[in-house]
Amino acid sequence: MTPESHSLTDMDLTAADAPVPPPGCPAHGLGPGGVRRLYGPEAEDLGALYEELRAEHGAVAPVLIHDDVPMWVVLGHSENLHMVRSPSQFTRDSRTWTPLNSGRIKPDHPLTPHFAWQPICSYAEGDEHLRLRGAVTGAMSTIDYRGLRRYINRTTQALVNRFCEEGRADLVGRFADHLPMAVMCEVLGMADEYNDRIVHAARDMLKGTETAIASNQYIVDALTRLTARRRTQPEDDFTTHLVNHPARLTDDEIREHLRLVLIAAYEATANLIANVLRVILTDPRFRAQLNGGQMTVPEAVEQSLWDEPPFSSILGYFAKQDTELGGQRIRKGDGLLFGIAPGNVDPRVRPDLSAGMQGNRSHLAFGGGPHECPGQDIGRAIADTGIDALLTRLPDIQLDCAEDELRWTASIASRHLVELPVRFEPRPPQDVRQRPALRPLPAQRPGWLITTTGRQSTEPVDDRPFTPDTVAAWSVAPEGAARTLPVPPAAAPQRRPGLWRRVLRWWRGD
Ligand code: HEM
């Protein structure tokens, strides 16, 4: 394809220069130069907008982000991969971005948190990237995945214990938002910092509310204390290995990388868990495949990573030289949005979006190239193990509102399900330290019946103190309460392959 004749520089008009279309005019959503805006009311359905852009421009399209700052959005699967895998042509170092250097972007630009350069591996390149990322991956390589899965399983049981007697719960606020934070606090070596407050602080920070700065500070303070503690009291945890890594990170670098790991892991994995659970509860075909054994939970997670990646785009990559991508002429200093969600639905790789991907892992959800997510195995372990354990424990779980009542908060970078109300038969808490009995067997999952009762969610906020030293300490069933696995509900017996494997995995704590 011949590169399109215009470049981002040609359309760099200020918003004031642009004629304002009358209300109702189809030109709404278009900015200076007739370029589409990726923000505002016309960009509410970003998926549909990306498809219009693909039809108009092909694999790489010119767009305007907030304040009508011009960028390219990369829509093609192979073009996205080419960009992230070509560090000689594209960098994540935003200090090279022309609109930033020319003063076109004001310091209070609403997307500043997404692109502001920081001395962390996400924005570094070359030797500096190797040094910082090497320390992170070196510390990650010490993680014992068997122990991690056991911890995820026990944490899931503990979280379910908090609401299982109520028969109702919001699975976002009481499960998906908690599990990754509890697990990451344990991985980093600060299990005692895990409580409702840190979960709310992380969510508040990501929402960018007026208290976001204080919430960020709360998390930074916890990580500063942890760094200082591990300098003097080493343990066998991620932070100690980061501190002792031969790359000799400074205290500031350690704290910033702990923050990166904690927040990247929390936000992405919470979204992933919520997305998978929502599809299970609302898509009978998906549910039937899981129940019938044609799909495993890890395959369901992988499918979700294709259909609804936790980060829908990354802002951004920046051209280091004049080049060409997807038929567009890219100038040195141009910014490009790494289009994860549109790349995952590129018709050239997925001509039929309803066809299952059957565990195929070539989606863009974890990025690619030198910055490819180093925590993907941890994210997958939390989602796979947590969802499996939740569904085993609450096999009769059903959506407790109409599907169209579900709400999301969305930004250019991600979509977060606000609530996922469910109901189920109330059950007693379970002792999470207990080894499972082989009899009675864990409940077979019945077909999760989808009922959309239209109930407005009235989920109370659970503000009971949640300050365990270890998961085991908070989850002992009360005296006399059931100390076996939940008794199967009186459902028609169903044969499902893999039961013994599941019991064995439970037994081993995998
Ligand atoms: C489902 C869960 C997750 C998803 C979808 C995800 C996705 C991503 C993506 C898209 C990137 C950016 C790639 C790029 O810049 O091209 C990234 C980077 C990163 N992620 Fe994840 N992530 C997940 C979980 C985690 C976890 C659990 C950790 C840590 C334990 C983690 C740590 C990081 C770090 C440190 C980077 C920066 C790497 C670098 O720039 O070299 N992520 N992740």
TrEMBL record:
Transmembrane stretches, start-end: none
Sequence segments annotated as region (Disordered): 1-22
Superkingdom in the source lineage: Bacteria
PROSITE patterns associated with the record: CYTOCHROME_P450
SUPFAM superfamilies recorded: Cytochrome P450 (SSF48264)
Sequence similarity: Belongs to the cytochrome P450 family.
Name assigned to this protein: Cytochrome P450
